Amino acid sequence: MKNNLWTKLAVIFFSSIMFMPTSIAQETARASGQETKKEEPYIEEYDAKGNLSKSYSSKEIELLMKEAKTSERLLNTEPKNTNESSYVHFYDENNLLIGSSNAKAVTAQQAALAKVKAAGYLVYRYDETTFGNSVTIASERYFKNPQSITVTPKQQVNVLTIQTYKEGYSTPSGSIKIGNFRASVNVPLADIAQHALGSGNYKIQLIHNDTADSMTYLNSGTLYYQ
Fold it and tell me: DSSP label at 194?
């Protein structure tokens, strides 16, 4: 997609503001290299039949992590430099601020949303969640042409699968597997959704696939759609 959300947002957002035998040494180095590689963050994209269609490079992943940080800065509603000890927020169906005892928070989010809408996208903010099996964003709600979703771990996510289901279909249009993430990442969805089955409404399911931990712990995140 030529009109990339993050290309547009970047322009709008940033313009506003010891010795051992050689054989043992070689084996140790090789094992160490394999371990390091295994522990690096990864993102893998699969088609509807479960075939690997793309593996993201370290540079691509680095960019997606930067995009997630930009998203959180853009949509952060926590008041800064305020003496208020408490405040009350009111949210719409997309979990976006529509009223607050802190007027600055509302103004800040409205300004941020204007920038997102100027890029041609809508936003849904999902709440923090903990699950041992799976969870569907917004309780089975369908979103038109989902573009990406930010994932922010409370603790390291070793393996997490994200699937998209087009309305009227009982099987996923594709899936993305991410792993070894400690920080936020903006996960692309367009290739496994509308680029696979065409424009339409899709629901997004997060699946716990971590055999090292019984639960997945995520902070709140953002879904971008059209």
Answer: H
Q: Tell which phi-psi region holds residue 155, choosing left (phi > 0), alpha (psi between -120 and 50) or beta.
A: beta
Using the 8-state DSSP alphabet, how is residue 108 labeled?
Answer: H
Q: How many residues does the chain have?
A: 226
Amino acid occupying residue 88: V
Beta strand extents in the chain (DSSP E only): 42-47, 52-55, 89-91, 97-100, 122-126, 129-131, 134-136, 143-144, 148-151, 160-166, 174-179, 185-188, 201-208, 216-218, 221-225
Residue 23 covered by a domain: no
Assess if residue 35 is contained within a domain: no
Task: Render pLDDT for 117-169 as a digit per residue (tens, 0 to 9).
Answer: 888 999 999 999 999 999 999 999 999 999 999 999 999 999 999 999 999 99
CA 202, 118, 95, 179: dihedral to nearest 10 degrees?
60
Where do we find the tokens 């993050």? Answer: 6
Residue 107 covered by a domain: yes
CATH number of the domain that residue 170 is part of: 2.60.120
Domain count for the chain = 1
Residues of the domain holding 86: 42-225
* Cut 0.85: pTM above it: no
Question: CB–CB of 151/61 below 8 Å?
Answer: no
- Structural domain contains residue 53: yes
* H-only helix segments in 52-193: 58-75, 103-118
